[in-house]
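From: lab user (bench 3)
To: helpdesk
Subject: output format question, protein + flavin mononucleotide

Hello, I'm new to running complex predictions and I'm not sure whether the block I got back is the full result or only part of it. Here's what I submitted:
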Amino acid sequence: MPFFHYRSAEQLANEVNRLGLTDQIILDSQVRRLAQPVSVGGRKLWNAFAYHPMEGCDGTTDGRPSALTERRYERLATGGGALIWVEATAVSLEGRANPRQLCINEQTAKDFERLVKRIRQRHKERFGEERILIGLQLTHSGRYCYQDPRPVVGDPVLDRRLPARWSGRYVTDGELEDLTKDFLHAARLAWSVGFDFVDIKQCHRYLLSELLSAKTRPGPYGGDLSHRTRLARQIFLEIWNQIGDQILLASRINVFDGPAFDSSGRPEKYPQPFLYGFGCDPNDPLKVDLTEPIQWIKEMVDLGVQMVNVTMGNPYANPHIGRPFDRPPNDGYPAPEHPLVGVARHFQATAQVKKAVGPQALIVGTGYSFLRQFLWMAAEANLRRERVDIVGVGRGALAYPDFAQDLLNTGAMDVRKVCLAVSFCTTLMRTKDHPLGQAPTGCVPRDRLYAALYDHLHKGKAVKIL
Ligand SMILES: Cc1cc2nc3c(=O)[nH]c(=O)nc-3n(C[C@H](O)[C@H](O)[C@H](O)COP(=O)(O)O)c2cc1C
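Helpdesk reply: Thanks, we reran it on our side. This is the complete output you should expect:
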């Protein structure tokens, strides 16, 4: 039986109770705070829903948004959520995690400009006025770059013991220093093409995220927390000094890396960088310790970061932590804990961050999609208790982009459209044998286009893609 088999909020609440998670997962039954405007740096979001960054692996091979990318964002533009957080976009071609990842540079900037205009136009056509915020997530994929040798910033000794698939190259201090320019340049371009904010991505163990845990790296970028955060600090300072009065600064950050899990769903025992993961209890990487994440987030806020998107885990090494699921992706393992425990971990960590940061910055929360048609109830409860300021939805938005509109209009979400947390979207993006080198991704159970694509790739059926 799937974990999620609850037909009513009452059944879900009973399960939460049985699992001892009543402090973390609370369900409210009326939409109030969700429908109220939220102020962000002098701008107004017209409700408290955000669409999380969700990579579609559907850019052109030179990093431009394609017709498929545009289709995805047009669906979000008319979906009713107030904040569109455009997916992980590399600051350089060599920093991409797959050959279809977006990359912002001089050659592609015009295409991003078209995308932003299209989102605003579609939103305005649908709602009569423009009332959304659009941001761009800027990233360097570090050890997850698709081209070898992948730059590894973590521990030189432990990394050598990792499996051969990590054909890593230990990145030098000079190279790290140069990355500040790449991020600044990309942020400038993002501003010039009309984005409202940029997110400096420090999550999911891509380069800036891995650096946060480079505890055993010698030199200026490793060791104590002030060294490990040096590069991100330089990036925030530069962006703030150069264009801080033009564009909002945000960051999506892992507050808990967690250990890597093996294919049977057990935490791996051999020494590996995750042992030293950011936000992990040094004596037990399975336990969350927010001392360092909170210290760094407070400093980020002092550096001008106005929006912090709290997330956790690693999609390759421990997908159940970041994206609680009913069924694992093809390269995953069966959930080693009840997914509601994962949801509760997200909510609890986010609430602690919010408590520490106070009103100085807006905190965006993660982990809602597993709750399907009841996600808004937990969202409402977390907002009312000031455990979060903006509710981000990831997989749930790929499945059902207009969930926010439906909820705000009717007070309910359509159970036939919600995300089933069965990981086809992750499986698709892991599929390499696509004619274009990387399968684009979307919701297989809820979007015919991706159902057809999945059938084609996995069952050999014909498919027409845009
Ligand atoms: C297909 C897919 C693509 C994703 N792309 C990104 C991304 O570009 N940037 C990012 O920070 N997180 C990315 N994520 C993580 C999601 O934003 C989100 O954190 C995760 O799915 C958990 O939230 P949910 O339960 O609402 O889905 C991706 C997740 C999936 C499944």
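A quick orientation on your result: Residues 52-55, 87-88, 137, 203, 252, 311, 322-323, 366-370, 393-396, 425-426, 429, 441 surround flavin mononucleotide (CB under 6 Å). Let us know if anything else is unclear.
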